[in-house]
Amino acid sequence: MLIRPQARRSSRRRLPVALTLGAGLVVTTALSLCSSIVQAQDKPQYGGTLTTSTVNPTVSALTWDHADWNWKYNQDDGQIYEQLFAADLTKAKRFGGKYTFIADAWLPTDAIRGELAESWEWKEKPLRIEIKLRKGVMFPDKPGVMKARELVADDVVFSYNRLDKSPKRLPQYFDHIEKVEAPDKHTVVFTFKQYNAEWDYRFGWGYYSGIAPKEVSDAGMANWKNANGTGPFLLTDVIQGTSNTYDKNPNYWDKVKIDGAEYKLPFVDKIVYRLIKDESTLLAALRTGKIDLVEAVRWSAVDELKKSAPQLKWSKWLNTRGTFLAMRVDQKPFDDIRVRRALNMAVNKQEIVKSYYNGNADIFGYPQHPDYVGYYEPLDKMPDSVKELYTYNPDKAKKLLAEAGYPKGFSFKVQYFAGNPDHVDVIPLIAAYLEQVGVTMELQPMEYAAYLSAMTTKKHTAGYFMDNGHTNPTTTLRKSFGSGQTWNPSMYADPEFDKKLEAAYAERDETKRQALLKTMTREIIDKAPYIWLPTRYVYTAWWPWVKNYDGELRAGAERPGPIYARIWIDQALKKKMGY
Q1: pLDDT tens for residues 97-109?
Q2: Pair 216, 145: CB distance under 8 Å
Q3: Best exposed site among 104, 303, 340, 445 by fewest CB in 10 Å?
Q4: What is the dotted CATH code of the domain comprising 26-274+543-573?
Q5: What's the DSSP call for residue 134?
Q6: 321-536 adopts what CATH topology?
Q7: Is the pTM for the entire model greater than 0.70?
Q8: What is the DSSP code (8-state) at residue 35?
């Protein structure tokens, strides 16, 4: 059964109650995080600027339009455009909860709150969900684009239909939805063709589900100057390749309760994203206090920073992106599983963890992430045929290559992103291992836009080296290995695997769904469409004047906006520390 957030009792207000699909129970979110109890040692302060480097410090905004179906949209637009649901940040570990809110696009069912949705209720015959929107949530006045007005149900319907009709739409993404309607000003009804276990992720808190008004679309959503949403910040400046600037939305609706007092959000006056391609320059900016928060610091820089800037605060987390070299199974020689298995055995993964990462990596962290409790299985629980792929065995690799008709090896082209320091460092190691079994990699470094386009248009080379987000326990398998999927660099296609995916999505019982996905994960690893590589640890660093923060990164799919809205800057402390 799908379970929605558990009940929390209060004599003053009612927070989310459990919802079982088809049970007819209503989920209510009260005043979002207005009703949350946040424990803080310092009194919140208004004002100041939060300068941050996101988890992608080298990549500029790739689009300002959610209909472009781009994965980075929420990182840049998630402060502006809100969604129906978001993370319940009161469930964070620092408040006694279970979650770090680091996963790139996974919100556990008991850690979701309504954002624009005030309540929601499942109904049967036909299967549908009725969502009641918050009243009084406003789009700001935007000269030349729109007058200030209230968000209404038609905005949700418009956003969904615009996304669904986009030529860039991901295949099968909304195939479970029959229609979306607005029976009144504050009610939206999603009618389903069949149940889908990702219903809330796909158009509730997912990568592309920000709610934007028709006026912005008419003005041209691709132009950042037209951006206008109900979120805590307004986009006020973009310097391509250098920075994004967001000013506080003075009429933002949400509030937070801290130590018994209620505060209007957001706290800071401004957020500045710094985009810095040179790693040493980025680290210098952090060390000298020019950046308050760096979300992703490479393991190799941590020891030096702890010495040179000992007052920095730290969070360590296993990367939410897997690293691998995809082999196109629709081309020779990678249509032969013996070749793919051979290349896996030719790479000494244990040595990479020990000698390159200095232990700062996990040999088995993809395609499922260890944070996915109930879905993840460690390597020691896997079949021997899977374990074999993680065991260095160049002799068997040569034997398999000979059996497949390549006793003298072969060469193949590999594209990779030149702006990723780990790609630049790791890929020569992989090339060196493969050379020992007679296989030569012809390397093609690329800038990000061209690199991404090569894959999404299926024009990439036989080898494609990349990091790819886990997303969540179902999407990690669907997007990477489902037939015809956009984010499927190996071009893997198996009708039987697709049927199993469909069965997993249709399964309402989460325990049964977990069992299905474990079986499928074992199967796809064993088929070796990738050279499976270690998953590295990443560090987040911030200065002590960044308050109400403990390393949380996402409150939805790659969306930090609600987290930033709750941060304040202790300006007196910053000054006292000499910055």
Answers
A1: 989 999 999 998 8
A2: yes
A3: 303
A4: 3.40.190.10
A5: P
A6: Dipeptide-binding Protein; domain 3 (3.10.105)
A7: yes
A8: G
